[in-house]
Design a protein that fits this description.
The complex is a heterodimer of chains A (163) and B (99).
Chain A (H helix, E strand, L loop, with lengths): L1 H22 L3 H21 L3 H26 L14 H21 L13 H10 L3 H21 L5
Helix pairs in contact in A: 1-2, 2-3
Chain B lengths: L2 H21 L3 H26 L3 H31 L13
Helix pairs in contact in B: 1-2, 2-3
The chains are: A mainly alpha (163), B mainly alpha (99).
């Protein structure tokens, strides 16, 4: 019962803040709405018994990404003076395509009911994730470290001062 | 809650993100839409992991979260570089490849 209430409350918050992200006139407000949407997603992860993922979500997304997006806006946006409209002229076509996408996904979900046996939550999810990452998935994990190193070097290269 | 509820919520968020990607003029706004879409995919992965009682979906979403963060960092670096070269981040005005 409590879980159902929490799900619907989080769903309303998520959908409203996601709509605000794409419709808000001010890009800075859009980023703040995105922070709310990402925090709400962390709540959904908690409902799904994934505490570790909720913590990662808050640290990396709501902490990291929001901060660098705010920096990028401060660097590139003229926050005073005349501003262009934030949406292009194809707003109707965009709405039609995304609603068609939604209808396609939801109808295919509802056509065949997914009957998964409702299993109990694993005992200690964080421990299980840690063990699997360092045993069975150790190679992709190391490759991920390489990818993040490459991304960091690339970002530093792009951001170097002009000669 | 049934699995379908989480999947439909993720589908709604994905469609909203797609709408943002298609209609925003500002490059940073487009990146925000992409973040919303990737976030919806993570909800799907973790919902399936939970309902199947299988940990692999969660590990996959750890990887997608890390890759998304790299993508955001590089994407914003490219945006800042574009601003330095063209003095604008409006996608309509970025036609360097148009010849």
């Amino acid at each position: 019962m409590l879980e159902t209430i929490a799900f619907w409350a989080l769903a309303v918050v998520l959908v409203c803040s996601a709509l605000a992200v794409v419709l808000s006139k001010n890009l800075f407000h859009a980023v703040l709405w995105l922070a709310l949407a990402l925090t709400g997603t962390a709540g959904i992860f908690l409902l799904l018994d994934a505490e570790f993922l909720a913590a990662v979500q808050l640290l990396l997304y709501a902490g990291g990404i929001i901060t660098i997006v705010v920096f990028a806006i401060v660097v590139t946006e003229r926050l005073v003076g005349e501003r262009l409209s934030q949406t292009n002229r194809r707003i109707g076509a965009g709405a039609v395509v995304s609603i068609a996408m939604l209808v396609a996904i939801v109808s295919s979900l509802l056509r065949q009911p997914l009957e998964l046996p409702s299993t109990a939550a694993p005992e200690n999810v964080t421990q299980a994730v840690g063990e699997a990452v360092l045993t069975r998935f150790v190679l992709p994990f190391e490759l991920l470290a390489l990818l993040m190193l490459a991304a960091m070097l690339g970002a530093i290269y792009f951001a170097r001062p002009e000669e | 809650m049934p699995l379908q509820a989480f999947l439909i919520l993720a589908a709604v968020l994905f469609s909203i993100g797609l709408f943002g990607v298609m209609t925003r003029r500002n490059t940073i706004g487009i990146l925000l839409g992409i973040e919303l879409m990737l976030n919806a995919v993570n909800i799907n992965l973790i919902a399936f992991a939970r309902f199947r009682g299988d940990i692999v979906g969660m590990i996959f979403s750890v990887f997608t979260i890390c890759i998304t963060v790299s993508e955001a960092a590089l994407g914003l670096a490219i945006v800042i570089l574009l601003f330095r070269v063209r003095r604008t981040v409006i996608a309509d005005h970025l036609d360097l490849l148009k010849g």
